Amino acid sequence: MRFGFIEEHRKIWPVSVMCDVLRISRSGYYAWRRRPVSGRSQQRELLLSEIKQIHHERKKDVYGSPRVHEELKARGKRCNVKTVAGIMRENGIRSKTAQKFKATTDSKHGRPVAQNVLNRNFEVQGANEVWLADISVPQKRRERWEFGLPQSACRSRLQTTMSGCG
């Protein structure tokens, strides 16, 4: 990491000054420059290119490290899921997550809003004076929208109807 810093900034400052400041020997820095790239680094670079390819071609970047790892295994690459996760983290590769549903009562829009005629006054004198419904919003895409009457309204309507029968 320190050698990389010196390599990036050697055109700005002298190498000897940076080595002194970072407490590194100049011979160590030059030995690092001559040293060939390690097999592990080469392997990680190849893995990174595969990860980028998989991440972009599969379902619009929704693959996280477990799915990318499974795809790499299916392609015959041997690697650890933690290695894949680390490479993805180091290079800023993340899966796009779906935004969670957020119920809002914000009525600052141009669409018409129904008047609040009931004003939370659920006490009624007789049958068929007030009708109300409940819309249950699904939390997941696979669930269905459910429309129905609240239990208390059903119970009171049933009691009112039954009391007139007998």
Widest sheet: strand ordering: 1-2
Shape: elongated
Helix/sheet category: mainly alpha
> Gap between N and C termini, in Å?
88 Å
- Number of helical stretches of at least 4 residues: 7
* Percent of residues in β-strands: under 5%
Give, in order, the helices and strands.
HHHHHHEEH
Helix content: 40-55%
Strand segment count: 2
How many domains in all? 3
Mean pLDDT: 77
Whole-number radius of gyration? 33 Å
**Largest sheet descriptor:** 2 strands, antiparallel
**Low-pLDDT residue spans:** 157-166
Structure description:
The chain has 166 residues and is mainly alpha-helical. It has 3 domains: 1-35; 38-97; 117-166, no CATH class. Helix content is 47%, strand content 4%. It has 7 helices and 2 strands; from the N terminus they run ααααααββα. Helix 5 crosses helix 6 (81-90). The chain is elongated.
